[in-house]
Amino acid sequence: MIPGVAPKPAAPPVASAPQHRHMLVLGAGFVGRSVSERLLAQGWKVSGTCTSAAKKRELEMLGMNASVFDATEKSKLENIQSLQQATHLLISIPPVPGVGDPLLNLNEDLKGILGHGNLEWLCYLSSTSVYRDCGGALVDEDHTVNPKSESAKLRHKAEKGWLNLVDDMDLSAFILRLGGIYGPGRSALDTLAKSKSLSQRQKLRESKHYTARVHVADIYQAILASMSQRCARKIFNVVDDDAAPRAEVFAFARSLIEMRYPDLITESPGVNSTESDFEERIVPAEKRVSNARLKKELGVKLLHPTYRSGLQSIIDSWQAESQLSDRNRRRKGMPVCALILYVSALLLLQVNTRLAELIHMRSTSTCIYESRHRAGPRYSGVTGLRKRGSSASPDAWSIYKC
User: What does the pLDDT look like over 113-128, one tens digit per residue?
Assistant: First the structure.
């Protein structure tokens, strides 16, 4: 019932894919894999990196050319296949604490490979966390960046690093600052359904008045739209229209589950708090992130402008997958049932045939016995047969019925 594989969005944008277009996804995690699946469906050649041999096999089963690149083990660029052949490069590897962006640490080698390759387009996936707390103000891409946490500082450093790396290259480069990412398999619905406890970081986010978020399908839309911008150096916020607090989102998710699957959850996994505790943990309103540039300059029309639309589509996909699984189970069970019925029918037919033979044999024997003990001009010497009349020809015999 719980989905394992993300469904395709309704009426998705089409990425034209001439034969020479080749996307390399550095970090084929939740977003990278989702984008890869959609591009593969549009006929693109797609390569990607992951951190283990097991994940490599999963990506290859999707149709990708996969390479293992573990940022924590100082992997070499030579391990990344297709780095020089790719025409499009999507970077979805988060900075590593104490290391930073592992690829940018190989700056000179990376610049040499990309500079002599086929690259036309580059996109780095960043985060809206670089804006820090803005007291509830609406912030756009021109707002002063002042990251507070260590991870946000590393994100901002990586943004500048990638833009500097390709500064003198003839290609389009984009920074997409993503809100909190959700989608099939990774949402408030999934957290509740799996009775999964919230991390300490998630619990701290509960107290925020505003939370920027975006459905993974709309990240794909933004990526496709940016490909139409030639020789640009642009930053875009990729968020939906409703920066609702986390508690509101979980309450709506719970109501959806209770309507469709009332026995699936019994209590919220670690999202309940007393009113006094909640008040004690309230923090400033932080920020509301604007997506006006995304809509105006890239022409993106969000598939899921609010969390309500996004969560509704996810729970609808649960029902669709459940029905599909039921049909598949029935189809798989049909040959076995048919075989059992067929064998049973054969056995019954054999029994009935044998029984009929026994009855007939017994009936025939009775007729023979009786015919031998009967007399009269109408009976011949042929046992069990009787003339049809006195004027009948010698071959006009009929079976005598007892």
Answer: 888 889 999 999 999 9
